[in-house]
Amino acid sequence: MPLDEDKYPAETGRRRFVKGVVGSAALSSVGVGGAAAVDATTDAAGEGGGTTPFVAVENTAGPAPRGMPIIPIEINGGEISGLWPDYDENAGAALASDFGGSGIDYSSQWFQYCGIQSTEAVYPQSERNNTFLNDTGTFSWQGEYDSGEPITVDMFEDYQDWGNGIGDSGVGKPASAVWRTNSEGKNGAPVQIIRSVEVEKMANGEGEYANLPGNVQSFVSEATDQGFIAWLNKCTHFCCVPGFKTQEGSANFGGANAIYCQCHQSVYDPFSPVQSTFVALPRPPKTE
Fold first, then answer.
1. Which letter does DSSP use for residue 283 in this model?
2. What does each C-alpha distance from 93 to 28, 42, 107, 224, 281 come to in angstroms?
3. Which part of the chain is the Rieske domain (predicted)?
């Protein structure tokens, strides 16, 4: 299929089905996660969930009902990890209240949508590997490194000039990764990372970013480091896996320098953090 074509053209009837299903989900701001998500929403014994404020990379076009949640990062010894808060028994979630003095609570519930809520990766008390591990399937440069090895700062030394022929060069260098994996480096959540001068400006509140709401700017300043930003890479429309500079046809939908989802042309701006609210899906009860 050409990269600039709709995966579900109107004449197939498939689009009508998708719109019907997604429309009902969008009304409650809930992503669709297949059978697992349906089970979770109908099971009275589900854990966590409910109305959840979060900070996202903004959805700027297409049918997605909201942005994708940002993952605060930390860098230790050059390795880049996603921060996972301590478990809060009262909240029933992993929770960092007033994250970085921003007034925003960072919670594991941010990631409870699109079936992710049914995985071990987001169980708040699970002991998992928080290091971002290399996923070689998206960007050719990542094939120079072993699959599953830690993502490190020195992999992005050319971030100010990097380009792959999609959109403008120098906007940022992306990587695909898995996060919160088990001891074998498997069963993690899909993540994308960018290192960009724009992220550095956001963190410092420079130029146009001086107009960010104070709490969002404070959050971004704490959640990014050395120009790196990360997010859970699950489209909030129909749970596809979008990408920053992964599709040549993204230029036809205003997404050449943004995160673009080919399935239904949703576009997200990684340089526009916003605070939003959605209904996090309950986690199925954990069985020992």
1. B
2. 21, 20, 7, 22, 13
3. 194-288
Residue 68 and residue 191 in contact, taking contact as beta carbons nearer than 8 Å: no
Kindly state whether residue 14 falls inside one of the protein's structural domains. Answer: no
How many independent structural domains does the chain possess? 1
Tell me, yes or no, whether 13 lies in a domain: no
Question: Do 71 and 131 touch, CB atoms closer than 8 A?
Answer: no
**What's the whole-number average pLDDT of the chain?**
86
The residue range of the domain holding 244 is 50-280
Which amino acid appears at position 245 of this protein? K
pLDDT of residue 163: 96
pTM: 0.84
pLDDT confidence band for 263 (50 / 70 / 90): confident
Residue 242 in this model has a pLDDT that exceeds 70: yes
Residue with tokens 């042309």: 265
* DSSP three-state, residue 209: helix
23 is a domain residue = no
Closest CA to 126 of 158, 156, 93, 78: 93
User: Which of helix, strand or coil describes residue 194?
Assistant: strand
> Considering the domain boundaries, does residue 30 fall inside one?
no
The number of beta carbons lying within 10 Å of the beta carbon of residue 39 is 15
Sign of torsion over alpha carbons 101, 103, 106, 107: positive
Question: Token digits for 228?
Answer: 């790196």
Please provide the DSSP assignment of 72-125 as one string: -EEEETTEEEE--PPEETTTTEEEETTGGGSS--EEGGGG--TTGGGSGGG-TT
